[in-house]
Amino acid sequence: MLTFAIFSLLLHFAMQASPPLDQVFQYIDEHQDDYVQHLKEWIAIQSESSNPTKRDDVIRMMQVVGETIKRLGGTVELTDVGNEELPSGKIIPLPPVVLGKLGKDPNKTTVGIYGHVDVQPARFEDGWSTDPYLLTEKDGNLYGRGSSDDKGPVLAWLHAIEAFQALKQELPVNLKFIFEGMEESGSKGLDELLKAKNETFFSNIDYIVISDSAWLSKKPALTYGTRGLCYFIIEVQCANQDLHSGLYGGTVHEAMTDLIALLDSLVNSTGYVLIPGIDSDVVPLTNEERVLYKEIEFNLEAFKHTIGTTELLHKTKEDVLLHRWRFPSLSIHGIEGAFSGPGAKTVIPAKVTGKFSIRLVPNMDPDKLSNQVMTYLNGVFAARGSPNQMQVALESGSKAWVAHVTDKQYDAGRRAISKVFGVEAELIREGGTIPVARSLQHTTQKSVMMLPIGSPDDRIHSQDEKLSRDNYINGTKLFAAYIAEISQH
Q1: How far apart are CA 397 and CA 405, in angstroms?
Q2: Is there a binding annotation on residue 212?
Q3: What are the DSSP E strand ranges found in 57-201?
Q4: Which of 49, 302, 373, 401 could form a disulfide with 437 if both were Cys (CB 3.0 to 4.6 A apart)?
Q5: Which region is the signal sequence (predicted)?
């Protein structure tokens, strides 16, 4: 007993002598099992925003988040953002957005933290090796829907704050929280809320940080840009009913033939988008920017192996990353109306619908791009001389987002990563679209940075989504370090 008492006393004095942030790190290490249990409780709530039958679960998830912030001493407003009309005509409430505040010292930096706690649908029979809503730890990984996207990162922020408080250390910044429950379904209602609260809730925020993305490799990263997205629908109709190919084949202008020709006219075999003028607004690539890509850790062979292909459109690491993040791309996604079941069916479909999207980069504009696409496809269709009816429509459009990597917030992010992981941060972009980053930056005119803690193999949106325990715990330390570093500005 004497030996244990002496050891405890020495440990107490050692903690008192160590720097405050090191004490926070030690506390986080000692409480990691509690953090895993907390994540398990959140994962159990099936907050699928796209599933109307789960709307009550999403609302409950928002309430749980609000209660967690209140336990930290914060104030919380569960903000009503209206209703959603389902295709059936039924009206259901949108989940409230959590707007929280912690601290109001006018002499401190104020940081806004954005995250979401809704998830993509998941069922065991989809091919999961574990119950997607029962957090399962296996081989150092925490498996469960939402573990990486985005419940784990949201909890890591809250645990980092709790660590400061448990050690009776004054939180070095003021914090504001923006947590939503519709990100996986287009963030319905959020843009209107941002505009409505811009002169009040957001007015004194200095920086906004988002942790809803992942590293490119095993090396920690800061994300400073994402591509935008325009999603198009082409509809071609040749008759008022499906036709028997034996009776009508060779006598009509078939809708499917027209549609395939239109889709084939969009992009060539090297990935080059054939729509005239599409590159006219793309910000020119500078030599200084190109240098950023040379230092990024990215293995082409591993990338090819992961996706199961033997050859890519581009040969060098730099060119692959540039075309993944920095240049526009066009993808064809599918055709509706055509027979796709097993067996043979000799039918000429009366109406078919093609779907394709274009990823936008700065400074491309969705409305201008839409006009370019429609003008081009109308010209291609006219040149075919088909009597069929053809329509092109823009289903949805969002602009790209890019930040200034020389911003003070990015300096703080770099220092925090160096302190926790002992390496220099990689500066990366995302090829996908995270509209909230641009919405927050455009509406508030504040600095926005993505500070991810997920790995590229976390399988977000897929079966067996996971977050490694190491990333979860070290990510909590990273957020604590960021809070300390950003307070110095």
Answers
A1: 26
A2: yes
A3: 75-79, 83-85, 91-93, 97-102, 110-116, 136-138, 141-143, 174-180
A4: 401
A5: 1-16
First-to-last CA distance in the chain? 48
Contact assessment for residue 446 and residue 202, using Cβ atoms and an 8 Å cutoff = yes
**Which pLDDT tens digit goes with each residue over 45-93?**
999 999 999 999 999 999 999 999 999 999 999 999 999 999 899 999 9
| pLDDT tens sequence across 345-378 | 999 999 999 999 999 999 999 999 999 999 999 9
Neighbour-count burial of 352, counting CB atoms closer than 10 A to its CB (0-12 exposed, 13-18 middle, 19+ buried): buried
Q: Domain boundary at 397, 422, 456, which?
A: 397
State yes or no: 116 annotated in a binding site: yes
Domain that residue 361 falls in: 230-282+327-397
Question: What are the residue numbers of the active site?
Answer: 118, 183
Q: Is 464 annotated as a binding residue?
A: no
**Phi, psi for residue 107 in degrees, rounded to 5:** -90, 0
State the CATH number of the domain containing residue 123.
3.40.630.10
Higher pLDDT, 196 or 14: 196
Structure tokens at 175: 């914090």
Residue type, 25: F
Asked if 215 and 237 sit in the same domain, the reply is no
The residues with which 268 forms a beta bridge, in sequence order, are none
Q: Is 461 annotated as a binding residue?
A: yes
Nearest CA to 358 out of 376, 344, 340, 342 is that of: 376
Do 262 and 191 belong together in one domain? Answer: no
pLDDT tens-digit readout, 231-270: 999 999 999 999 999 999 999 999 999 999 999 999 999 9
75-79/447-450 β-pairing = unpaired
